[in-house]
Design goal:
- By secondary structure, the protein is mainly beta.
- It contains no helices and eleven strands.
- It has strands at residues 3-6, 10-13, 18-25, 32-39, 46-51, 58-60, 68-73, 78-83, 92-100, 116-117, 121-126.
- A hairpin with a 6-residue loop joins strand 4 and strand 5 (46-51).
C-alpha cells in the first residue's frame, strides 16, 4: 500500500521560512519523479516544483523561483520543499505527488499525470 504523507505546514509571517517533508512508503522512491503542488481556496491546483527521479534536474514555477528549493533523500524515502521569503500569496494547501519515471519533464506541472498523492499540509502566510 502506497502512502504519501506531507507535514511541516503551519502559520508563518511574511518573509519567513518553512520546510515541508513528504515521506513515502510502499513504492520504490527513485522510480518516480516527484512534484509539489499547491491549491488555494477558489483556485486551481498549480505545480510548484518537481524533481526528476535521478535527482539531477529540478523545475520551479516562476512564482517561487529563487525562493523555494526541492530536494530529496532517497535513503529516507523523503521529498522536501524548502520555502524561504514566504509571501501571503503562497498561502495554500501543499501536496506532494509521484509521477512515474518514464514521463519526461514536459509532464512536470501536469497534475493529472501524477498517480500517487498525499493529503496535503496547510501553509498560511500572514502579512
Amino acid at each position: 500500500q502506497v502512502q504519501v504523507v506531507e507535514s511541516g505546514g503551519g502559520l508563518v509571517q511574511a518573509g519567513g521560512s518553512l520546510k515541508l517533508p513528504c515521506t513515502v512508503s510502499g513504492l520504490t522512491f527513485d522510480h518516480y519523479n516527484w512534484g509539489w503542488f499547491r491549491q488555494a481556496p477558489g483556485k486551481e491546483r498549480e505545480g510548484v516544483s518537481c524533481i526528476r527521479w535521478s535527482g539531477d534536474n529540478a523545475y520551479y514555477a516562476d512564482s517561487v523561483k529563487g525562493r523555494f528549493t526541492i530536494t530529496r533523500d532517497v535513503a529516507k524515502n523523503t521529498l522536501y520543499l524548502q520555502m524561504n521569503s514566504l509571501k501571503p500569496e503562497d498561502t495554500a494547501m501543499y501536496y506532494c505527488a509521484a509521477l512515474p519515471a518514464y514521463y519526461n519533464d514536459a509532464y512536470c506541472a501536469l497534475a493529472h499525470a501524477y498517480n500517487y498523492w498525499g493529503q496535503g499540509t496547510q501553509v498560511t502566510v500572514s502579512s
